Amino acid sequence: MDIPSSGAAGGMLILWKSELFEATTSEYGIYSATVKLREKQNGNLWWITCIYGPSTNSSKSDFWLELNDIGNLIDEPWCIAGDFNEILYPSERRGLSTSLPQLSFHDWITDFSLIDIPLPNFQFTWSNFRENASCSKLDRCFVNPEWMLKLPRSNLTGLPRPVSDHCPLLLDSSLPLGGPIPFRFENMWFHHKDFKMKISNWWTENELSGWAANILHLKLQTIKKRLKLWNKETFGVIIVQKQKLTHEISLLDRKESGIGLSKEEISCRQAKKGDLQDLVLKEEIH
Q1: What DSSP designation does 89 have?
Q2: What is this structure's pTM?
Q3: Contact at 8 Å (CB) between 161 and 249?
Q4: Helix, strand or coil for residue 156?
Q5: From CA 133, how far away is CA 262, in angstroms rounded?
Q6: 142: which of 9, 46, 114, 219 fits an S-S bond (Cβ 3.0–4.6 Å)?
Q7: Chain segment 19-68, per-residue pLDDT in tens
Q8: CA atoms within 13 A of residue 238's CA, in its CB half-sphere
Q9: CB 45 within 8 A of CB 73
Q10: 8 A C-beta contact, residue 86 and residue 101
Q11: Is 231 helix (H, G, I), strand (E, B) or coil?
């Protein structure tokens, strides 16, 4: 489900795996999109709300009224996250006017007993990317007690922001898994000029005899091994460079949240973002 953006502002999108969940209820607001999901395996219900709060004070009362109306619908596990365009405490803003946070924000949290999941690796989630940058913590993720009872390991991480001026948030509510990393088919392989020829050659490189199902299994295993090696040799350099640039951008973002960045570091971060976008483009057309 989605709410379209207005130029570069606004816009919300909620996606889920249709093989695992089905949507039973959806609610569209001016500042929010909400969906109620049912797990197909066990019938558990989950509410997800995506937020894009108003930036003007004249619209704030309508915003909190909308969130109150949503909260009154829900008595199952609920996660509500996004850009609230509001801070909770004066310390969550730097380089901008030090207006006090709205009491409506605190009241809303109290009324619905919401838990503000800590963000340990970023002090701020928005920056104007200038020298002596203005920064604020505008993006948050809340859950209700019913969510935490079901998923007590829920934790939040701020991700690098190679494009947006907001820090993406990753909520991890899963249990730790062990074992080897599963094989993943990459869509970028289709765009490589040698891909179809490689698959054809690997499929026919060995003459096998026996039960048809066993032959198919062996051929698929061979192709999987060849694909892993070919991916490492062909795309490995791009992948390593992407990881390196993403890590470097993340370090500069975190430094900005702390002591700030110099003019040279701001230019360096911008250059690294450009390099990262170039690599993404190369990966798509490789």
Answers
A1: S
A2: 0.65
A3: yes
A4: strand
A5: 10
A6: 114
A7: 999 999 888 889 999 999 999 989 999 999 999 988 888 888 899 999 99
A8: 16
A9: no
A10: yes
A11: helix
